[in-house]
């Protein structure tokens, strides 16, 4: 993959995050609607914002597609670490791709609830629940993706590592924090609800900074790659994953 394309893909993480935030604002989903709201209250919300919610759902799906570029670029740089042994490369790629599925189902549920606002309040509430529970609990796959990045960083034996070692520890903290979202199915009110600090807040607090951090780290890694590759080509040598010069 050429360097210019890699730089664009590195930015796709923050761009995806910005589009997601815009979608939530347009759909009037910030702050999240309370899971304790009655069916009539939920139905009134969707009837009052049906067009905005449909537009927000489209943007949400677009943001999920954009994030795939970020997943791809992470795999490119992890591959530099692993060389021919690509365990974490494939793990990150598979988990990152799998994590997109819930982020497609979430806006589809919102669309269905808003598309026919004349439906009974119970039906609209059910699709609202499906959307938010799917979004907030879509953390195991993302956690595995982030964990794979951390493990790959620790496995880097190159003379000049692709990522600083502390990125692994930041990734582990993020992977653990993301799992708080699973708790939202246990309560409708309080910190464990999907609009609460523990279930709904911690995952955003750890994942958004991690995404921004990895964008910066990816750009630095791409710059390092850009310097290394011409030097290696000029000397007629290859560099294996341990940073050892070998004959072509």
Q: What does this 3D model show about the protein?
A:
By secondary structure, this protein is mostly helical. It has one domain. The chain is built from 9 helices and 2 strands, in the order αααααααααββ. A two-stranded antiparallel ribbon has the order 1-2. A hairpin with a 5-residue loop joins strand 1 and strand 2 (245-246). The longest helix has 39 residues, at 197-235. Residues 233-237 and 244-248 have low confidence and may be disordered.
Concise structural overview:
With 248 residues, the chain is mostly helical. 72% of the residues lie in helices and 2% in strands.
The overall strand count is 2
Q: What is the 3D form?
A: elongated
| Element order: H for helix, E for strand | HHHHHHHHHEE
Mean pLDDT: 91
- Share of β-strand residues: under 5%
C-alpha-based Rg, rounded: 21 Å
Instruction: Give the oligomeric state.
Output: single chain
Task: Looking at this protein, list some descriptive labels.
two-stranded antiparallel ribbon; 2 strands; mainly alpha; 248 residues; elongated; disordered C terminus
